[in-house]
Amino acid sequence: MHSQVTESLRDWANSLVNLGPVLTGENTAITMGEVRSAYTAMLAKHPAPHGVSFASVDMGGIPGTLITPDELKTDAVLMYIHGGAYIVGEPAGYHGIGGNYAKLMGARVYMPDYRLAPEHPFPAAIDDTLQAYRWLLDQGQPAEKIVFAGESAGGALVVTVMVAARNAGLTLPAAGVAISPWANLEHTGISMTNREGLDPLNTKAGLDMLARTFLGNALPNHPMASPVFADVTGLPPIMVQIGENELMLSDAMRLATHLADHRVRVTLEVWPGMFHAWHFSASILPEAQKALEGSVLFLEHALRDASA
């Protein structure tokens, strides 16, 4: 693997080294705010492309970031839902991937800054992201000209927020891309065992702790926490992209099968040798750039179909 990618993965792992001890109370010298700032600073090393601009936006009471490409090719918009185990992450760290989507699509990208656990456990992240989507609709943006994308917890939210929107009687977006989705908080997929040690970023014990932090008093098989258990009937086309080295591989494949079983049009891509949310490394890893470009083609085709 490219030495810069290896170094980037090491930085990613190191940025979260204090998360567990802070959550368990073993380390009281560092605050959760400092852990989150370190995570954002690490992600921000992935550069935004030239030709995009950033602005703060109020998405119906949910703070957010609007990314606008210099060359606007469409009136469709993407809502990018960031990951971070529902515990870390904020739009400021996602200028790279959000900017790449904006430039590749020639579209405006909105990134909601939803509330995080443990201060705001399940279902705060879902409620906030649903409110951000509702705001887009209230602005007069047609649902058939909205698409979702997100990675990790955000990849799960791509599906979960669609389910919540359907349940609320809202018109659904045209499509969604779930990158490395954290789709099953029970962590029962076989890759949780046989990819242990191959996954450079996650361990099952760590994911179990993060899931419990997010869930609060909810069970890990709650359908709004783990979309593999949700009623996904009637959802628009979904693309699932997952790295073959990921602990989350089997559960992401299960999500794709679950969608298909409920007659949702689904595209599953398993990328050999790839790691969690490899798309961040688009500036240095060809597979990341290709995965981004493939997801954009999927979204563009779905937008055309929805507007036909």
Characterise this structure:
With 308 residues, the protein is an alpha/beta fold. It is 40% helix and 16% strand. Strands 1-2-4-3-5-6-7-8 form an eight-stranded mixed beta sheet, with helices on both faces. The model has no long low-confidence stretch (mean pLDDT 97).
Topology (SSEs and partners):
Layout lengths: L2 H13 L3 H6 L7 H12 L8 E8 L2 E8 L7 E5 L13 H11 L2 E5 L11 H15 L7 E6 L1 H15 L7 E5 L11 H4 L9 H12 L22 E6 L5 H13 L4 E6 L14 H22 L1
Parallel strand pairs: 3-4, 3-5, 5-6, 6-7, 7-8
Antiparallel strand pairs: 1-2, 2-4
Helix pairs in contact: 1-3, 4-10, 5-6
Question: Which CATH class is shown?
Answer: Alpha Beta
Radius of gyration: 18 Å
Number of strands: 8
Annotated CATH topology:
Rossmann fold
What's the N-to-C terminus distance? 42 Å
CATH homologous group name: Alpha/Beta hydrolase fold, catalytic domain
Which segments are poorly predicted (pLDDT under 50) over 5 or more consecutive residues?
Answer: none
Shape, principal axes of CA atoms: globular
Taking the sheet with the most strands, its summary is: 8 strands, mixed
At CATH level 2, the architecture is: 3-Layer(aba) Sandwich
> Which secondary-structure class do the elements indicate?
alpha/beta
**Portion in strands:** 15-25%
Compressed to H and E, one letter per element, the order equals HHHEEEHEHEHEHHEHEH
| Widest β-sheet, arrangement of strands | 1-2-4-3-5-6-7-8
How many helix segments? Answer: 10
Whole-number tally of structural domains = 1
Q: Which bin fits the share of residues in helices?
A: 25-40%
Mean pLDDT: 97
